[in-house]
Amino acid sequence: MTTRMVGEPVKRVEDPRLVTGNGRYLDDLGHDAFEVAFVRSPHAHARVVDVDVTDALDVEGLVAIYTYEDLVADEEEHGTRVAQALPLLIPHPTLTHGRTQHALANGEVNHVGEAIVMVVASDRYAAEDAVERIRVDYEFLTPIVGVEAARAAEHLVHDDVPGNVAARMVQETGDADAAIDAAPHRLELDLAIERSASMPMEGKGVHARWDADDESLTVHTSTQTSTSVRQAVAAKLNLPVDRVEVVTPDVGGGFGVKIVHPWPEEVLVPWAALRLGRPVKWTEDRREHFVSSAHERGQLHHVRVGYDDEGRLLGLSVKFWHDHGAYIPYGLIVPIITSTQLLGPYKPGAYRVEFESLYTNTVIVTPYRGAGRPQGCFVMERTMDAIAADLGLDRALVRERNFIQPDEMPYDQGLIFQDGRQLLYDSGDFPGSLAKLKELVGWDDFAAYREQARAEGRRVGIGMACYVEGTGVGPYEGGHIRVETDGTVVVSTGLTTQGQGHQTMLAQIVADELGVPFERIRVTTGDTRRFKYAVGTFASRTAVMSGSAVAVTARAVREKALRIASDALEAAVEDLEIVDGNVRVKGTGENGASVDLGAVAVLSNPLRYAFDEAAKRATQFAAPADPDKPPVAEGESPGLEASQFYSPPRSTFANGMHAVVVETDPDTADIKVLRYCVVHDCGTLINPMIVEGQIHGGVAQGVGGALYERMEYAPDGQLLNASFMDFLMPYASEVPEVEIDHLVTPSPLNPLGVKGAGEAGVIPGAAAIAAAIEDAEGITIRRMPISPSELFHLRLENQEAGS
Amino acid sequence: MSDVVSTGSTTRVSLTVNGVRHDLDLPARRLLSDALRHDLRLTGTHVGCEHGVCGACTVLVDGAPMRSCLLFAVSLDGAEITTVEGCRSADGGMGPVQQAFHECHALQCGFCTPGFITTITAFLDDNPAPTRDEAREAVSGNLCRCTGYVNIVSAVERAAELRREPTP
Question: B81-109 pLDDT, tens per residue?
Fold first, then answer.
């Protein structure tokens, strides 16, 4: 019997290539391509008065210099749309004032780093030489930086957007204000989270090659969605979509920033390749990534909550302000997720949430792993802790009393989620998860440990945070599987891969569903030459969406193989099974009659010509066939292959709970994470090794977001820490070991019972660590991240208030 | 034209990379990372920050780990350089550190991995049997955004084991 692959910690097939230096990332391609560098605005808010390129024209190796006027001229000459604003990808009725940027600034720049001039040269050195010699004259405008300045609206980012407000959205279930006013206990909290960013180790990059003979364009881009880039590039360049292909090479991390598209460079580089007739490449450098990609997380929240003597929520009202930066190409996804997912595993009573999405003269904000959930989790979990403190109750107990119970699943929160569908939890066992977490971290014994540490002059504290995460959002993904005549199984799906081990995980599914050895399976992702219909890799959706899609596709291939083999083996389809890539009659074992899938593939394709040994078997004189029937039976098609799609009614909801133990230094206020415990429920685990790796990485980003990472904007809109020297991402010395326990409540929504796992690890980090610091210090924490210096000042303020 | 901005003359430099000698004519400002990646097309060495902080571009120069994004290639005339490609086993398969990364799931996107492989190779030359704390310290100068480092620390320990095992 073949070992089942799903559920096993199968080593990744990607690794041997990547660890030996044989990966192919964007900048590993096109060594002879022209290279691009940009003149980017050094000012946060200004009018571009004049661009003088005179001094740059004599730079050796210069090929071309383009400004916005060139894009306009191209529109007039060739009918392209490169001068028009980039698309607003996710419109929403409440997004009344959506503004997007131009590929090159159209007379005004709205953040430091916005591209104004594109230089093409023989290599990047020459391109940067030219960039340095281009002079831009600016007329300065007042920069608007931070939520408070945007809200005050004394100045506007965009002249035609009153109040700097792009959108205002309200969702409500019941009368929250009345419920809060009538509640025996009430609290109000102001809670803030600062900006961080996805910050993949590889920045963005684009390589484009125009084949003038074939009139076709091939674009390689470090993206999370190749199919949509293809459509966008074709539309911008006025090319038939049929003449454009987009290939995702190895991608050095995404974490959300690469789902946005088309980036200005994804339009400009292919356009330059088309006009110059030569391959053109742009590789983003780290500073460019800081100032011209995307950030996330920055939000201010005001909470009003009413609850009973037991700590049960009666009404919850949250108003928050989301700083989305200079433009809003990705729409309202992040604040919609905060506003819905902050409810976590709890029943809020009556709930009202209102947010405003505000323009500022800073880098745009688009989803970064967690995508609004870390903020929502911070809001809800800080509220839970505040209620526990107010009533003098155990923090775990307050949570438990507010949990949705397993027998209440599926549970409708009565809101509309980011996919436009109901916020309806499909499964989960929150009391079960909490029990596991309490045991894993030793919650009930911690008070004694804290006291003992106190006696030794040490300060330790514990905190927990719970979340629910809608994963696997639609609309769909698809798969294509073909069995070659040598028995190789070729699988493709349209979404892309940034290190999640999709080739391994999808092959595990196909191996089980089709009954073939894992080693015979080859998986391709993110290549529009292979699969043209897809959405992309975001929202922890690959296992759910493409996993389910290749599972149903493999089932279709299996059915076809059995139909063909039933003729060859003269047995009924129901009596056949596929084991180790061989179709055989059930119960006959290895010695019975069988036909391997390669041979079935040969038979599936009736031939006239014997182009190789295997093909001989399928030629017209080779085998007896019913002369009265067509060689390809009615309803069949040649080839042992199939393509199927999976489209669920709505998202599936994963959940988890984290507990953290921290120690704070009584003198220096240094904060050290001593233990980090995770209980995680993502339904059926396809590859537990990969799932745990995802959790580890998420936890590290959660620790970074809680203690180290923030975008330091000066009031004039300069990003002061736009380098790895100053933006502090955690090294191994800052990340704790991670203790993990799993609970499995399979999703009823998909054939595999899986839920997404990619983002989970990061979500509760700031909330749990804030709670642990609060517990260690006895000081209320309302803003994250927190540095030792900030904690030190909180101590001083607390002492002053106490004295 | 008299005011052409030229990249200037080139200098002959001899680099022995992974045991193979290369004579290159390079502009003085050509970074070692670019010379390796684009002149020699050894693209295993990756550039993550261009300012020596992330460590993805780490190569061994005469056995010592160095950041190739901070070195001018012309300053290394006569040097022996080992890149991630040079950390393979004799038959071209995975070397012990690479094998350990595979076994321990110590990589996800793989972009930072080459810098870890070279750094750990040099570390284990100095300390063939590190404790877990020493292993963690050894990789604390390289950034990884995917793994949370847990499995990388385990891979250092596993690589030390593999290096001690007699080769078949």
Answer: 999 999 999 999 999 999 999 999 999 99
Residue B3: closest C-alpha in chain A: A58
Helix (H, G, I), strand (E, B) or coil at A74: helix
Please give the ipTM for the structure prediction.
0.96
Count H helices and E strands in chain B, helices first.
5, 5
| Residue recorded with tokens 């119970």 | A405
For residue A460 the two structure tokens come to: 């330790």
Cβ atoms of A490 and A670 within 8 Å: the answer is no
B residues 20..49 contacting A (CB < 8 A) = 27, 29-30, 37-38, 41-49
Sorted by where each starts, the structural domains of chain B and their CATH numbers stand as 12-86 (3.10.20.30), 88-164 (1.10.150.120)
Is A21's CB within 8 Å of B45's CB? yes
* Two tokens, residue B127: 């300390």
Calculate the alpha carbon distances from A47 to A50, A85, A101, A116, A164 in Å.
Answer: 9, 17, 14, 11, 18
What angle in degrees, to the nearest 10, is found between the helix axes of A430-441 and A395-402? 170
Separation between Cα atoms, residue A162 and residue A144, nearest integer Å: 13
Q: What is the pTM of this model?
A: 0.96
Tell whether A339 and A418 lie within a shared domain: yes
Task: Answer yes or no: do A19 and B143 touch at CB < 8 A.
Answer: no
Residues of A within 8 A of B41 (CB-CB) are 31
Helix (H, G, I), strand (E, B) or coil at A743: coil
What 3-state class would DSSP assign to A605? coil
Token pair listed for A104: 């090159």
How far apart are the CA of A435 and the nearest CA of chain B, in angstroms? Answer: 25
Amino acid at A598: G
A147–B contact, CB cutoff 8 A? no
- The kind and range of the H/E element at A185 are strand A185-193
Alpha carbons within 13 angstroms on the beta-carbon side of residue A704 total 31
Quick one: A394 and A529 in the same domain?
A: no
Structure tokens at A442: 């030793």
Residues of chain B positioned with their CB less than 8 A from the CB of A735: 148-150
Among A440, A486, A458, A379, residue whose Cα is nearest residue A667: A458
**Partners of residue A459 on adjacent β-strands:** A664
Quote the domain boundaries for residue A453: 299-473+649-802
Distances (CA, A) of A800 to A37, A397, A790, A797: 53, 32, 15, 5
Q: Do the domain assignments include residue A251?
A: no
Given a cut of 70, whether residue B143 has pLDDT beyond it is yes
Of B29, B30, B107, Cβ closest to residue A18: B107
pLDDT digits (tens, 9 = 90+) for A466-477: 999 999 898 999
Give the separation between CA A47 and CA A407, rounded to whole angstroms. 60
- β-bridge mates for residue A640, sequence order: A483
Contact predicate A161/A95, CB 8 Å: no
Q: How far, in Å, CA of A120 to CA of A279, rounded?
A: 11
